[in-house]
Amino acid sequence: MIDSYLQKLLGRGDHDPGCEGAGELMESFCELIARGETVSDGYAEFLTHMSNCTACREDMEGLLAALRAQGKSVEG
């Protein structure tokens, strides 16, 4: 419990590409997730940034929700 709190407070120690670097990968990452595909190790730094940046994480969650809603409307 404490480790989780500290990680949220301090962020992960791995290399973080910053908002701009993560933003460049966000669409492709979200498309993979929405299709249910496996995410490669090439997204490790992106995921580090998502752990460290609440604003980008919220953007990613919104994009994922939109893609999933779009996928449901296409299927149904």
Main β-sheet: number of strands, strand sense, barrel status?
A: none
Tell me the structural class.
Answer: mainly alpha
Percent of sequence in beta strands: under 5%
Low-pLDDT regions: none
Kindly provide the radius of gyration, computed on alpha-carbon positions and rounded to a whole number of angstroms: 14 Å
Distance between the termini: 41 Å
Number of continuous helical runs: 4
Secondary structure: number of strands: 0
Shape: globular
Structural account:
The longest helix is centred in the last third of the chain and has 22 residues, at 54-75. The protein has one domain (2-75). The chain is mostly helical. Helix 2 (18-35) packs across helix 3, helix 2 (18-35) packs parallel to helix 4 (54-75) and helix 3 packs across helix 4. The chain has helices at 2-10, 18-35, 44-52, 54-75.
Topology:
Elements: H1 2-10, H2 18-35, H3 44-52, H4 54-75
Helix pairs in contact: 2-3, 2-4, 3-4
Summarize this structure as a short list of keywords or feature phrases.
76 residues, mainly alpha
Task: Give the structure's gist in a few sentences.
The protein has 76 residues and is mostly helical.
